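Quick bug: NADH dehydrogenase [ubiquinone] 1 beta subcomplex subunit 7 output formatted oddly.
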Amino acid sequence: MAGSSAESLPKATREEMREAKLPIQYRDGCANLLIPLNRCRQDSYYLPWKCGDERHSYEKCQYEEFKKRVVKMNELRAAKEGARSN
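Here's what came back:
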């Protein structure tokens, strides 16, 4: 899906991620959605029924990133097998 909401938001800078105290493994293309999600979670004492919109946006972004990685990996595998057959 081109033009998803995660692509329209500006990416979080390294300084913003550091100020939000995001662990290194979460500093990816979806960090701009994780920062407000974590802020909402802290403000609502991690109640599971709160912050649903933020969580949904973040999880959708993570899924889209996963699908991009799968496509890229399949392309690399196809190129590797194509090189072997020659």
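Actually, after a second look the formatting is fine. The chain has one domain: 5-85. Closing.
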